[in-house]
Structures are given as structure tokens and as C-alpha cells.
Amino acid sequence: MSRSLKNFGKRFILRIFAVLFLILLLPAAGPLLADPAEVPHEYRIAPVPFTQANIPSGFWKSRIDTAREETIPFSFKKCEENGRVRNFMRASGELEGKFEGICCWDDSDVYKVLEGASFLLAIQEDPKLDAYMDDIIAKIAAAQETDGYLYTMRTIYQNAETKEGQVAPPGGLERWSNTGGHELYCLGHLYEAAYAHHLATGKRNLLDIALKSADFICETFGDGKSQNWPPGHQEVEMGLVKLYRLTGEKKYLDLAKHFLDLRGRTEGRTYAPYGPYSQDHKPVVEQDEAVGHAVRACYMYSGIADVAALTGDKAYKEAILRIWKNVVEKKLYVTGGVGARRRGESFGDAYELPNDAAYCETCAQIAAVYWAHRMFLDSGKAEYCDVMEKIMYNALISGISLDGKSFFYPNPLEIPNGDHKRSPWFGCSCCPSNLCRFMPSVSGYLYAVEGDTVYVNLYSNSSVTLDAKVSGQPAKVTLDQKTNYPWDGKIAVSAKTAGRYTLKFRIPAWVRGEAVADGSKLYSFVDPQLPKWTVSVNGTPVDTANLEDGYLTITRDWKEGDAVDLDFPMTIQRVIADERIAADRGKVALQRGPIVFCVEQQDVNTKSLYSLRLDDSAKISEKWEPELLGGVMTLTGTACEYYMAPTKNDPKKMQVTQRPVSFRAIPYYAWAHREARQMAVWLNREESAVQPLTFLRSIETRGSEGTKHLDLMGDGKVPTDKTRFFPGMHWWPKLGTAEWAEYHFPETMQVEKIRIFWFDDRGFGHCRVPESWRLLYLDTEGKWQPVEDPSGFGTEYFIFNETTFKPVKTKGLRVEMQSQKGWAGGIYEWNVE
Description:
By secondary structure, the chain is an alpha+beta fold.
């Protein structure tokens, strides 16, 4: 037997005994929740655990079911196929081999899917899923080192007899040698998963792993300890806070604050700060602007909100409020999206909110919801739930397909070329696994409680039983909610508990004429005068004149069965942006209720959405379409298309012409489920924003089989930077083939020169300038004839290739080209004179 095999066997046996020992130590199932008296600075408002609220039907129920039936099983399968589960087995010695994967944060994917699966177990018993999770948890336990350290990439590396061929973790062999890596980030997700799993099942098998790990890092990090570097990617702070709230062990909260306090401080550190990218450019209490990597930022802001609430730290509270205002007043997309820049996956400057280049990473949207929810819990203000709702219904769920099996990493608000599709998985799959944990947790955002006051924050079919004070005494309060929100603004809430207590109903910002939330003028409605909304109790109208922080408060001696009816009329709203957002100047977006809409090119007869203008006077209608995209409300109307056409007196001169075109808008979250075409959230409102179709783009174009993006061939746009990809018409993946493209003119035209800018995406793809080509014209008999006396057929890269020829009168031109062997061809721009 080889030495390596003997070592493998020893390690494996030791790990098995470790797991068995842990199992024997497990107490009977039951929640570990700390006595509130042991958690002295809780949130002002208590979140209602996901275990206490149920969503039986409606918008969110279908998405939770999809997570149960598709997304989470699919993601567990991917974690197995891509080696994420096997990495735990290698770390324990059960398997040999090197770390599988390309990312030093791969462990976190397993933890996040486990967290999502835990939410599912709380909603519905599933013995098969429960047993499967226990098996994975046992593998995690076996991979944990005896002192509590848990990070498979480093454990596999340090246990390997030879380092050759192994995947080295950031910093090499030594633990914590590069906290800019993801050791602590992964542990944060472990702690959050353990919290959810324990609440859902009462088991301690995952929780004990988390507590052992947390105790170990408490011994390693902290004031006076040898390690004094902040985590490179924030997340562990939120996880530690959850362990504190679960156990009452203050050392977890102290360490979370310690990690935050280290940011932006240089004293005692042996290397330069990470800088703005990781929000390490100044101490957190001095920060006032959202900067850097948007996911790291929003996780950190959530952690700051946690620590501020649980310690009562005034400086922390002031800092996080400043940063929040910076985002909602200067850096938030109309969809609720955050994170404008692809470079660094980061926040941009104030009002830097491009649409086609918008990044809006799915993970950042989820993190922003966590942040918004925490801001509400410490304030009781509806403005935070307004933003949370906007993100959830728009920027966030755009990141997952309706069938739950494909995902967006970025979520742009505009697609100029139709080349954006969801993917089934990624090498870095933080977004799919994050969606796994978010979708089943939605019930935890619906309600909250403060003493004798119950907050109704989000509207969804639901039932909840929560702990509150009734007539001054601790009791259970049960509410039922029925609605077809977000498609209908009628909501019926039934009180099932008798006694005196208070219900606070959030009156959404859009109901009150606000496009974002109180205090933010980043976006506004063209017509803020909305239909009157009403609330009644048992049919008797309630005075709605006085709202408190965006909530309507009803305090009374409730009788079982008392009915509260809310009616929020949903009208179609035109939204405009602050003039300082350059990308939205002269444009308008459409919103109905909390849903922001977009237009896809297949729903309007045009070659370019940029050529359309939606006038303020244009009538827009709504229609429920149950068979479209899983059932959606659509908006229909007539826009005006602008295009260039020859003048009657001189065909060589062009003039702007208009024609009406019908359009249909769909919810933004549902885009990219059909043929990949152009998409836009913002439509032109003013003529100055319109890009009229060039004459060549407005006419009929044809291409050989497999031609892609034919409508780009005459759009007047060519690349100016070789280092950036630029879209164009092409024939990829057809390699080394003969292809053709045609222009067909509405009237006979005299032409004598063309200019072609060949599509060549060297450095990005497999298209190159052609090997050869020729030009033909359509004669009076409808036959294609080669042009006479051509000056040449150039194939130069990154310039226009000009060809003159004997003038012809024709109704069509045709380019025939032969691609180079092993390469595809295409055309950026083809001009005709």
C-alpha cells in the first residue's frame, strides 16, 4: 500500500470518528434562541422569522415552488458536478486529489444552497431533502479541522504530500495569510446557513460546526490578537451577528464590530489598505458614500446596520444613514438596481447610471434587500421597505429565469444588440446560489413586530402567527392576508386574534405619488396626482390623512374576524429621471404598481428601439395576459418611429420622417425569455433623445441562413476602440463559408459607391475580415448582376473599405463574401452612396 493511500485511510477514519462523535453530542431537536434579556440591544423592531409566516399562493408562492422543485435541486446537482461537495470530501481525507474549481469562494456556494434548502424545510416537511442535507453537513463536519478551521482550498493544499499540481489558496500555506481572500467570507455564509438550518429544523449538526468555527476565529481575531486585518470580502459580519442573536454570546457581536472597526485604519497593519474597492479607504464611521464592489459594500452596510442596532452605536447609525441617502438620492436605478459599473462590479459616481452598461449584479440586489430590511428594523420607516419592494419585484428577480434554471450575473436596463441571455451556471456561481437562499426566504420580509404593534410591510397572500403584546400581555397574533398584488392593489387582511393591539400598514411610495421613497427625487412621476386610495375596517372608512413614517396606523380592540380592506388603485405611471442622470435625459420609463416595465424588440415593429418616441399624450392601456411569460400584466400603446427617407425633389437628400408603431411593454423581470432582441426600460420622450433610423436601416434587409443582427448592418455605428467588444451583424458560428447580405430599396435609386466596415472581433471572438468578396446589383428583370468597373474589394481591418463602380439604377444591392478558413465573417456597417 502506498504511503499516500495509508495517510488517506488514517485521515478518513479520523474524520469518520469525528463525525460520529458530533452526532452523539447532538441534543434533542429544539431551537437554541437566546433569551431576549441576554441580547440587550436588539433591533427596535423584531423581524418575524420565516418559520412563522406562510405564503400559500400567488406571485411569491410560484417562485418559492420553483425554488423547491427546480432551482435548489439543480444547484445541489451543480455543486456536486463541479466539485464543490467533493472538495469537502478531499479536505476530510475521504477522497484524494486536488481542489476542484477556479474560485477561492466555492465553499460558500454549498452553504448558500443549504441555507435556501433550510428555508424550504421550514415551509414544508421533506424527509428526503432533510436526509440529503444531513449527508452534506456530515461531509462539512468531517472537513473541519480539529481546532475549528474550515476552508477546503487551504486544507486540501496543506494536506497534500506534494504541492505540484495543487490549487494554491491566496497567500499560500499559512492560514489567514491573505485575508483579502475569502476564508472569512465563506465562514459568514456558513454561519448564516447554520442559523437558518437550526431555526427550520431544530437540529444542531450544522450549527455546532458554525459555533466551533466562530469560537476559533474569536480566539484568532480581535483586539490584542495576532491577526488584525479586516476581511477582504465582507459577509462574516452578518453571520457573526446571527450567531449572537441565536446564542446571546456577545463575543460574536464584538468580533463583527472589530472587523468593521479595522476598515480604513492603517495602524498595526503590515500592508496597505484594500482601498475603495473593498470599502477600506476610510473608517466606517467616516464613510458617507457608497463606493467600490457593490456586493461587498451592501454586505458591509448590512453588517454596519446590524452592529449599529445591536450595540446602540450612534456613530455607526449616523454613518449608515449617510451612505443610504447617498445611494437612494444619487446611485439607484429606477428598477431598484445598485452597482453601475462593470469594471470592479462597483458603484459609480453620483448620477452615473448608464443603462446598456449597467452591471447591477444579482448578488448586489440581494445584498441591498438585506441592507434595506435592516434599516427598516432600526427605524420603523416605510421608505426602506419601499426600496426593498422596488428591488425585489424588478432588479432582483430579473436575475433568475421563470423556470428557475438559468441566471443573470449582470442585469442591464438596455440591450442594444440582443446578445444577452441567462446562463445555467457560472464558473463563479455566487448569483445562482444567492438566489437559492433568497427566494424561499421571502416570507420573512412581510411582517415585523414591536411590542403591541404589528407592521405589514409587503403585500402577498399570506398567513402569520407572531409574538406580540395583546391588551398589554404577551400573546400570539394571527393575521391572514389575501391579494393579487402586484397585479391588483386590493388587499384584504383578517385579524384572527381578539384584543387590543396596533396594525401598521405600509402605504407604498407609488401609492403616495413617489417614484422611489420619501426624500429621494432621483426619479419622479410625470403626473403625481393619483387616484384616491382607501382603507376600511369592517366596511367603515378609515381616515387616511395622517401617515406616520409612511404607515397608516390602526389601534383598536380587535375582534376575531375583523376585516381590513386596502384599495391602492394601480394606474400606469410615466417616470422621469433627475436631469443629472445623463443616460435618462429626455426619456421616460413605465411603471404600474411596484412593477417597472420594459419593451423588447419582438413586441414592436421596428428595427431599433432607439428610433421610437413615446409622447406624453399617447394613450397606454393595460392587459392581463395569462399565457404570456407565466402570466403578466402588459402595457400597450402607440409610439412614433423616426426614420430617414429621401426627399421627393432630390433622392440624394434625406429628411426625418415619422410613422406610428404599436408596442407592448412587459415587466422588466420577465425579459429575455424569448428570442434575444433589443430591450429598453427607458423610451425616448423628447425628440432630442431620438436616434432616427438611418435610411439603410429603415429599408428591407436580407441575409443568408444563419445571419445574426442583420438590423445592425446599416445603423450608422462602427467601433472606435479595438480593446472593447462592439456588436455587429455576423455569421458566426459558420466558419469558412460563403455568405451574402442584401439591401432592398423602396424605390429605384442610382448608386455608384459603397463603404464596408468588416466585422472583426479579434481578441474577443471568431470573426475576421473576409478572404474575398464581390458586389452585385438587382437589374430591371430582378436578376443579380456584378457591378462594372469596381475600384477594388478591400478587406482591411478596422477601417471602411471603399469601392466605386459604374453608376447603376437599381432597387437592390448584394454583397457576396467568402469567409477565411476557420473563421466566420460579418459586417459592422455597409454604407451606400
